[in-house]
Design brief:
With 206 residues, the chain is an alpha/beta fold. Helix content is 42%, strand content 14%. The protein is globular, with a radius of gyration of 17 Å. The relative contact order is 0.22.
Length: 206
């Protein structure tokens, strides 16, 4: 039985390009983002991978990335579950601000603290711990059982919702996950044992 789980951060979005805090806003992919998604699909196809089910967030950039990847795989009609539990971290009052402008408004040290601490949230927003608190239960209840049942599963989501899952899958500490960056459009491939532990991990960014 192949217990396959693939995580992919969406391709570059228009707000990524503009260096804006995006959160739950809904910009589209850039041309580069479309290419990144296409390349991700081709790389998975070249590895001989196919999927039984897909999960994504309620945000268009992740959904479109998934559509493009599945198109490359010839699986455009694959069963797909969408949930806001997989949405990007909510950046609250930072949403829509240029990251450099935010430093001018709130102070560089404060913005760095909001971005790089595990449990300190920006005003009106979520910390990484908060993101984990909504993402992990969804994974445990909805995604993991299907992986462990042998359904080959792909998740197209966001930098922070996926970092929350990587933290759990890779048994990383809060400090360790803060050092882990997930590039746009690059798959991470896990094969799990029956006890849900990692048997194999392939990060195509490495």
């Amino acid at each position: 039985m192949e217990r396959l789980l693939v995580l992919v951060r969406h391709g570059q979005s228009e707000w990524n390009l503009k260096n804006l805090f995006t959160g739950w806003e809904n910009p589209d992919l850039t041309e580069l983002g479309v290419q990144e998604a296409s390349t991700a699909g081709v790389r998975l196809k070249d590895m001989g991978l196919q999927f039984d089910v897909a999960f994504t967030s309620n945000l268009w950039r992740a959904q479109r990335t998934l559509q493009i990847m599945l198109g490359e795989l010839g699986q455009g009609e694959l069963e797909t579950q969408r949930s806001e539990a997989l949405n990007e971290r909510d950046y609250g009052r930072l949403t829509g601000l240029n990251k450099e402008e935010a430093k001018g408004q709130f102070g560089e040290d404060q913005v760095h603290l909001w971005r790089r601490s595990y449990d300190i949230a920006p005003p009106g927003g979520e910390s990484l711990r908060d993101t984990l608190a909504r993402t992990l239960p969804y994974y445990v209840q909805e995604i993991q059982p299907r992986v462990l049942a042998g359904e080959r599963t792909i998740i197209s989501a966001h930098g922070n919702s996926l970092r929350a899952l990587v933290m759990v899958l890779d048994h990383l500490s809060p400090d360790e996950i803060l050092e882990r960056e997930l590039p746009t459009g690059v798959p991470i491939i896990y094969r799990l044992g029956a006890d849900s532990r990692i048997v194999e991990r392939i990060d195509l960014a490495e």
